[in-house]
Amino acid sequence: MAQRSPSAAVLVLHGGRETGTEPPPPGLLNLPGTRMRPFVRAVGRAAGGNVLVTPVRYAHRGWNGDRADPLHDAVTALDALREEAGDDLPVVLLGHSMGARAALRAAGHPLVRAVVGLAPWCPAEDPVAQLAGRDVVLVHSDRDRLTSPRATRSLTARARRAGARTCMVTVRGGDHAMLRRAPAWHRLATGLVIGLLGSGSLPGPVGAALALPPTAGATEGTLDLDLDLGPGPGPDPGRFRARTRSRAY
Question: Based on the number of CB atoms within 10 Å of its own CB, is 72 exposed (0-12), middle (13-18) or buried (19 or more)?
Answer without folding.
Answer: middle
